[in-house]
Amino acid sequence: xxxxxxxxxxxxxxxxxxxxxxxxxxxxxxxxxxxxxxxxxxxxxxxxxxxxxxxxxxxxxxxxxxxxxxxxxxxxxxxxxxxxxxxxxxxxxxxxxxxxxxxxxxxx
Length: 108
Hints:
By secondary structure, the protein is of the alpha+beta class. Helix content is 49%, strand content 25%.
């Protein structure tokens, strides 16, 4: 009985690590997508690029944020893209989230 346990234990440990990595990756995907959506809403209601970037970097300091177009007028669509590099056990991945919103009237 103990020999079988010793042979199976490394496989169970690797499976557990893999599941934990996938759960962490799923959490990162959800956080990045939600922050991109929140930042797009702020970009649509204010003209402050620093505030938009601050929404994301306040929660994910290592994230890269891009706002397009940099100059926006009422009725334009603003798109905020957030990239986060995630290190997994076997390789690194980049998680990307994108949020879009229509610029509110009176925002410049």
